[in-house]
Design brief:
By secondary structure, the chain is of the alpha/beta class. It is 30% helix and 16% strand. The strands form five sheets. Strands 1, 2, 3, 4, 5, 6, 17 and 18 form an eight-stranded mixed beta sheet that branches. Strands 7-16-8-9-12 form a five-stranded parallel beta sheet. The longest helix is centred in the C-terminal third of the chain and has 21 residues.
């Protein structure tokens, strides 16, 4: 059994102020904040060959943001916002990756990175007050502070299908799509998974493949995205009211830059509900449909049923075959991450697309020729695409051993469920910070990443200014926060719906609340109060007024 002694301290380790892991939105901004603005020495790492984080890896057909891009970007530099011209309301992956590369160039961030580098372990050294960080090629770094922006949805989930390695054709996970793409034209393709990624892939490839079999375990509620260019007058409004706009994003529940309804569904007649849902259906957007029509869709079963009854009627209107329409209609609540699409239900009217119900007939094995289901039917394929999602919230933090104070491992600390404070740190792990770790606000990530990095940077400055050797969140504060998150979560329908939000998509993973449904507004208020009060949540070692 591994323990902290497996990571030997190296007296000749390269000394830096901070190590940053990750080159997505959070990691890039961390390097800029800590190095460019605070003047610290920073060494950053990523396993990819370049920047981008999830947008580097997720190159699958149809990959795009499902968040309005006017809020899915950085806000810290108005000039950056003004000089980058987004082409679409929901940009495709190449455009988002180009934006992050532009950011890396503009702020000279690449020189702090070592790419194509894995981390094999981290360990806190009590004597030196530094983190030992070991890379896959055996190099050692000693950092006073460790910041991990490893991604909420980055640790890929590949189900253990019997015989997968025997398949004679091509197989790909959507989150590890080849950089040069895959030629699917005229091929027989199996798509396993119908979450956000699977929906995007299916719509994108249906017109070009010879035949597409979509293997569905759970039907999904999804609504139209209604892609269109960004309204120039809205961009003009943001530029003229820049600070006010971004503060309104931070002071919203979701940070998506969208209208969030305060009306309860019960206050409207059935006819008014129908009209309101129809209006949003035509306007587009998954989060808008869930949060912008009625305030209680994810908290009240009657409101939720009003929403799902509407979508179910749309499915029956769109899908010509009644049995296929029935299979595409979920038998569960609308209480997962909301999806939006470019015509998902309509692809099942195509002659070359079939829906395979693996809830009724599970995948028994992958054969050299294709996929055999439990009813004995074997379908032959040229390509198998796994759109099987991620081990969210904790997966990437547990990919390598991490040992905090007294040699306690993060894996042991999180064995029964994750424990953290405000998604940025954990008790027993001094000078250790996460970006959007467990218990983040259920919200748009880039604004949350940016706000969290600003708080982490201020906390690091506090430690430096007070001469503190270490700064660590108190265990009772962490526990109280987790209990509060549990209480809030249990008032919502997310708590009774299986999804990656509570870890039920991963066999053997403990089912647990892992989000803070107080939202961005509550998260911002808590961190601002913490900073204003001098960080009373933390144990500070050294010459600190808060020791």
């Amino acid at each position: 059994m591994a323990d902290s002694s497996d990571i030997a301290f190296d007296p000749d380790a390269t000394q830096v102020d901070a190590v940053v892991i990750g080159a997505g939105f959070g990691g890039l901004y961390s390097v800029h904040k800590l190095r460019n603005e605070m003047g610290l020495t920073v060494q950053a790492f990523d396993t990819a060959t370049g920047v981008g984080g999830t947008w580097y890896w997720n190159r699958y057909p149809g990959a795009r943001s499902d968040t309005e891009v006017t809020a899915y970007c950085y806000s810290f530099d108005k000039d950056l916002f003004n000089e980058w011209n987004w082409t679409q309301r929901y940009p495709l992956q190449p455009e988002i990756l180009a934006y992050l590369n532009h950011v890396a160039d503009r702020y000279d961030l690449r020189r702090s990175y070592q790419f194509e580098t894995t981390i094999t372990g981290t360990r806190w050294n009590e004597e030196t007050g530094r983190w030992e960080v070991v890379t896959g090629d055996g190099r050692h770094y000693a950092a006073r502070f460790l910041v991990e922006g490893v991604g909420l949805l980055s640790s890929t989930n590949v189900p253990d299908f019997p015989g997968l390695s025997s398949f004679a054709g091509e197989s790909y996970h959507t989150a590890r799509w080849p950089k040069d793409g895959v030629d699917l034209k005229g091929k027989r393709v199996a798509l396993i998974g119908t979450g956000s990624t699977g929906v995007q892939v299916a719509v994108s490839i249906a017109p070009e493949v010879e035949h597409l079999s979509v293997f569905q375990r759970h039907a999904q509620w999804t609504v139209p995205a209604q892609h269109r260019p960004i309204a120039p007058d809205f961009l003009d409004f943001i530029k003229a009211n820049y600070d006010e706009y971004w503060e309104s994003v931070r002071q919203s529940a979701s940070a998506f830059g969208i209208h969030e309804s305060d009306q309860l569904a019960a206050s409207a007649t059935p006819e008014e509900q129908e009209e309101a849902f129809e209006k949003q259906w035509n306007s587009g957007g998954g989060f808008q449909f869930m949060l912008g029509v009625y305030a209680d869709v994810v908290a009240d079963r009657d409101a939720n049923k009003a929403a799902t009854d509407f979508i179910a009627r749309k499915i029956r209107e769109i899908v010509k075959d009644p049995e296929t329409a029935r299979l595409l209609t979920p038998d569960e609540l609308y209480a997962k991450r909301p999806l939006c699409d470019d015509g998902y239900y309509a692809i099942f009217n195509r002659d070359n697309v079939e829906l395979v119900d693996v809830k009724a007939h599970a995948i028994a094995e992958i054969t050299p020729r294709g996929i055999k289901t439990a009813d004995g039917v074997e379908r032959e394929f040229d390509v198998i695409i796994l759109a099987t999602g991620f081990d969210a919230f904790t997966g990437n933090y547990l990919k390598f051993p991490q040992y905090g104070r007294d040699g306690v491992s993060l894996a042991d600390k999180w064995a029964e469920r994750p424990l953290a404070w405000e998604s940025i740190t954990a008790a027993g792990f001094p000078n250790w910070f996460m970006i959007f770790g467990p218990f983040p606000p259920f919200t748009n990530q880039p604004p949350a990443h940016e706000f969290q990095v600003n708080y982490i940077a201020a906390l690091i400055k506090h430690a430096i200014d007070t001469g503190a050797k270490s700064i660590e969140v108190k265990g009772d504060v962490e526990l109280s926060f987790v209990e509060t998150c549990d209480e809030l979560y249990n008032t919502t329908l997310f708590a009774v719906t299986d999804s990656w939000i509570n870890g039920t998509n991963i066999p053997g993973k403990p089912r647990a609340c892992m989000v803070n449904v107080a939202g961005m507004r509550g998260h911002v208020a808590a961190l601002r109060q913490s900073e204003a009060d001098g960080y009373p949540e933390f144990i500070v070692d050294g010459a600190s007024v808060n020791a």
